[in-house]
Predict the structure.
Amino acid sequence: MKTWALLLCLAVLPLAARAQTTVATPVPMPMASTCGAIDNRRLPGEFAPLAGEVPLIVAGRVAAEGAVINAGEARAVTLLPQSEVRFIVPSASKPLAEPHAGALRLHVVRAGIYRIALGASASIDVIGHGSPATAINAVAQAPGPQCSVVRKIVDVQLEAGDYLVQLSNASEVRILIMAVIKR
């Protein structure tokens, strides 16, 4: 009887661990040394969902495995060791000592300039479905408001459709991300 109970517990553990990846959870992000606490008062209104609890998803090792994010949805992404990720387009940035990375898919319903906010230092490549695959050039890039949960905002011109988002060179294993259409 004890053997069956032990086997049942061992069988349920992976399911319990996987269930935790879909639970809404606050994601503490590292702050610059000048910040005493996170202050989201200067956070642009369209990124307000990043200041609360957001669903946790897992990035893929390859594009087909990446979770789908829709424009307008805030997500916390668990990344992988960069050495385990296969990139469609190599990152142009110099790798950190132990970087984290991952692949996501972004769904966009209408054309426009999309602002993609990241909650930690990382490189981001948005890739269309052309052949050969190439990263879409950013039309603007800026740091997020000081001491907020947003560390970087990248603007890219996108048509309606699905895109691959490659995150690389992340210093943290978990990162916030949100894409919104620029008003």
